[in-house]
## 1
Amino acid sequence: MEKRWIYKQTPPREAVEKLSQEININPYLSTILVQRGTNDFESAKAYFRPTLSELHDPFLMKDMQQAVDRLKRAIDSQEKILVYGDYDVDGTTAVALVYSYLRAFHPNCAVYIPDRHKEGYGVSRAGIEWADENGYSLIIALDCGIKAADMVVLAEHKGIDFIICDHHLPDEEIPNAVAVLDPKRKDCNYPYKELSGCALGFKLIQAYARQHRDEQEVYQFLDLVAVSTASDIVPITGENRILTYYGLKKLNENPLPGLKALREVSQNRSDLDVSGIVFTLGPRINAAGRVAHASAAVELLIAETESEALALAGALNLNNDTRRQFDLDITEEALSMIHNNEVLRSAKSTVLFKNTWHKGVIGIVAARC
């Protein structure tokens, strides 16, 4: 795909000079800030020193009250709750966040991550069958579910309710779940549309805590939100910027045991920023779902002791080494196939296949080649 640079217009000189004087910075920096919509001291303060009080009210999200009410009923009635999520970084961090919050006061909950190769992406029939066989009456779907209208119907027939927390663009038909939390819904007036799946899980527990517990409890999981936001390549603007700012502070000062262990096995001893997450933590979490099973990543992220976390992090690190080797081998083989075939060398597009190539990494290879 050809890159296209879009240059912002030079802002009015008066606005640049005014901001430079107000916050005492170089005019070149104030030019960039004004181009990004930061025009005065207050907006600059919000940009550089965001506060948690600036997070949007979670109840502005369509269906949030219904979600909180159903969750409260499940907890009060001691129902079994299944926290279900996608197998990538966003999904596994989302599952870890919601499960870790709930288990502190509701032991009747478990996690389910579909098998990447056997079940594929999203809510699977196998997952619903497992929930039914094990007596779960509420499924919280994270980073998936917005296109699972048929699976929601299947679950309903089995007496299982759904709360969907998804950030992907919905189809015209919204699943008939108890609640569908998706800021990209046409009928959702939530002010910020670019939250990650994990951030949506955070908004759900934030809303629940605000009405029924202590909201301060939820901020201990912001390091998971930062990891998901960085790894899922959502814009670091607006509410995401606030969540990431505080998530990075948590990650660098007092991370959850699983993330602390993952940093140790990756031998990263400097403070992490967004790029550090993308290139250090993200690939190791993703590797579990690519070459083994993503449930291993969740087990790490919900670990409660450092010793347990270190053992699990070591296994994920080995998975990542395996993923790298698969990646290298397939890349070399694919390029060799092209180089040795005149038709492929001259083709405008190339499609290659070999049944021995590992399904979990061919997407990475295709993107690079």
## 2
Amino acid sequence: MEKLRILFIITDLGKGGAERYLVDLCKQLQAVNTVDFIIASLFDNNQYEAETKDFNIVTLNFQTFSFRRKNENTILKKLLDDFKPHVIHTHRFLGEFISSYYILKNCVYVCHGHDNMEQFANFEWKFLFNKKKLIQWLEKRYLIAKKYSKVETHFIANSKHTYDFYQKVLSTKLKAKVHLIYYGFDFEKFFNPEAFRKELEYPIKLINVGSFQPKKNQMFLVKIGIELKKRNVPFKMTLIGNGLLRQDVIDLIRENNLDEFYDLPGIIHDMKQMYRSHHIYVHSAWYEPFGLVFLEAMASGLPIIALDGKGNRDIIENDKNGYLIFEQNEVEFVDKIIELWHNREKFLAMSNYAQTFAKQYDMKKHTEKLLNIYMQKC
């Protein structure tokens, strides 16, 4: 029996939710005897080398593109000719864009919406005065002309928020192929059967994971620290990740004499033990397409306290596996931390439910849903 050949195209394999998801998905597909896959990365950046050492990864060395002339990528062209994929599954907008260079008529195309891709936004007259928005709109028109008008494409939304976005910005024909499929992850890797069996002891250990960029809003986590200190609550907060705003966060911590309360270790490759050594996962992003880190933290037994990021509404159930805060108010946020900490019965109930909730997102179940889409033409 011929194997199902899947080509995944992604910008790179840096530290991010989409990249983490793809690595976990491919690890699951390795156990499927009827599947063969290749990852095509536009840029040479792999921060999962240990986990992907057995993967077939091809670097496309993407340069740039043009609206005026035919776009080419000889590495991708050779890969398509040699591998002859039945399925091309793209991740991130650049991955979707380069997939339009060469169209295979009998291939199943899947575009994965890891967030609300701003390039898909409907045209507004103000775009004429905003170069970035105008180029993004032209990119969408290019995709429609070069790909969507020629072959059927399935769109996967990873949250109700992203699903609704697709329903607003895609044509009637395209929106009929939008599927709501939540992220899957390696539940067993993060599951902690011994979570919080002992008494909770101060300091409260809080953890956050995310790149230091404006939408992740880590400055707010420093305001939370200021409020906790004001109330004489012993705490430690670990902020995992790198990014352009990391130094700004460090500076704010120092300005408020909070150095002893914070740890910023950069990127951590094995997060399992990090989650297990903390009590509560806190999240400050004002926009979060879904939040794979929430599931990892829940599987580890951590209740979640987070600002409303729209996409995370699907996975945070108030008073069950955590709290969703709808206004950026550090006083309310700290109230929830203290309320949860002082009520051990509620803390344990949330911890247990968080693990039960996270288990339904195990990658095995997710993979079955994807394979059903992949097999539609095979």
